[in-house]
TrEMBL record:
Listed GO CC annotations: cytosol
Keywords: Amino-acid biosynthesis, Cytoplasm, Diaminopimelate biosynthesis, Lysine biosynthesis, NAD, NADP, Oxidoreductase
Dihydrodipicolinate reductase N-terminal domain mapped to chain residues: 2-125
Organism: Enterococcus raffinosus ATCC 49464
Residue numbers binding NAD(+): 8-13, 99-101, 123-126
Reactions that this protein is recorded to catalyse: (S)-2,3,4,5-tetrahydrodipicolinate + NAD(+) + H2O = (2S,4S)-4-hydroxy-2,3,4,5-tetrahydrodipicolinate + NADH + H(+); (S)-2,3,4,5-tetrahydrodipicolinate + NADP(+) + H2O = (2S,4S)-4-hydroxy-2,3,4,5-tetrahydrodipicolinate + NADPH + H(+)
Subcellular location field: Cytoplasm
Domain Dihydrodipicolinate reductase C-terminal: 130-264
EC number(s) stated in the UniProt entry for this protein: 1.17.1.8
Protein's recorded name: 4-hydroxy-tetrahydrodipicolinate reductase
Taxonomic placement: Bacteria, Bacillati, Bacillota, Bacilli, Lactobacillales
Residue sites binding (S)-2,3,4,5-tetrahydrodipicolinate per the record: 166-167
GO biological process, one term: lysine biosynthetic process via diaminopimelate
UniProt record similarity statement: Belongs to the DapB family.
Role noted for this protein: Catalyzes the conversion of 4-hydroxy-tetrahydrodipicolinate (HTPA) to tetrahydrodipicolinate.
Length: 266
């Protein structure tokens, strides 16, 4: 059984990952890690994640205290906690699955570089279906990307902190690379005023409302026709299940930087 630590067990993803991992015979949960000062530190992980029963595992606020007991860390926390988790994972040579978003390009590069030391998998979205969609976007961009207008519309709940979403940015990056460009050179975020659409750009539109879990649509607009590729989630279980599958994959890998595409062999 794979011994795992869950960082951010109180969040919506952390709760689901805890629930799924607790029911999965492939895993042994050894600790949860929350931010310092939270009132649930010291409580049972099952209680904190509200899964309906205790697990006999403590939630602590110091990853270094428990990190030696695990094989893989799963982190869906905050940008600040994610960077600290990365630092400690490298120091103690522990495999890391990170699904936290909001990192700058420089910070993302630190995750790539960590692959020289540990097995690491970074994914803005761990849903299997989203990653199949990503592959479809690559194929579509290679075939018609230079002759269509590309727009990305993403929807999330009102509590989403970053815009566009990490998933939407990753989709744009995949498309841009198929076109031989960098997303930073093509992205246009929202529109107002007058003027024609800039040729070759990738438009971004972020919608935040209610409790919408996650929705992404990429439009490839031609003349007289358009292609839409979409993914809509009804809850977060698919993302949590994908994160657990990534942990199983990573437990058997040598040091290196991996993606969900590697897990799915896309």
């Amino acid at each position: 059984m794979i011994k795992i630590i869950i960082v951010g067990p109180k969040g919506k993803m952390g709760r689901l990952i805890t629930q799924i991992a607790a029911e999965d015979e492939r895993f042994t949960l050894v600790a949860g890690v929350g931010p310092k000062g939270r009132d649930y530190i010291g409580q049972d992980l099952g209680q904190v994640a509200m899964i309906g029963n205790e697990l006999g595992v403590e939630v602590v606020d110091d990853l270094a205290r428990v990190i030696e007991s695990c094989e893989v860390i799963i982190d869906f926390s905050s940008k600040e906690m994610g960077l600290e988790t990365l630092r400690l994972a490298k120091k103690y040579k522990k495999a890391l699955v990170c699904g936290t978003t909001g990192f700058s390009p420089k910070e993302k590069e630190a995750f790539h570089q960590a692959g020289e030391v540990i097995p690491i998998l970074y994914a803005a979205n761990t849903s299997k279906l989203v990653n199949v969609m990503n592959r479809l976007l690559q194929l579509t961009a290679a075939a018609i990307g230079d002759e269509t207008d590309i727009e990305i519309v993403e929807m999330h709940d009102r509590w989403k902190k970053d815009a566009p979403s990490g998933t939407a940015k990753e989709m744009g990056e995949l498309i841009a690379h198929e076109l031989g460009e960098e997303l930073s050179e093509l992205a246009i975020y929202g529109r107002e005023g007058a003027g024609e659409r800039k040729k070759g750009s990738i438009g971004y539109h972020s919608v935040r409302m209610g409790d919408t879990p996650s929705s992404h649509t990429v439009f490839f607009g031609g003349f007289g026709e358009r292609l839409e590729i979409s993914h809509h989630s009804t809850d977060w279980r698919g993302f949590a299940k994908g994160a657990c599958d990534c942990a199983v994959f990573l437990a058997n890998q040598k040091k290196g930087y991996y993606t969900v595409a590697d897990v799915l062999k896309l």
